[in-house]
Amino acid sequence: MSRLIAVDWGSTSLRVYLLDPAGTLLDQRASADGITSQTAASYPETLKRVTAGWQGTVVLAGMVGSRQGWVEAPYCRLPADAAALAASA
What we know:
The longest helix is centred in the middle third of the chain and has 8 residues, at about 45-50. A hairpin with a 5-residue loop joins strand 2 (about 15-20) and strand 3 (about 25-30). About 15% of the residues lie in helices and about 30% in strands. The protein has a 4-stranded mixed β-sheet with strand order 3-2-1-4, with no helix packed on it. It is an alpha+beta fold. The protein is flat, with a radius of gyration of 14 Å.
């Protein structure tokens, strides 16, 4: 299993976390590169810059999945079990 790069990309800030396969925090970084300060064309380069030197599977959360973000993620109907959550991720 590879490392995980967990990204919390909000309106005004970007927070990234590098986790090992057991979920242990290895490193973390933050920047003021929130979604509202970016253009869609700049998202890939911003993510590369903030996670420079890291390798792993990337999971994005926060406003990056909003209508104003990189890709609008659909809402999951509730109540939802683990399978429904995974299917909508």
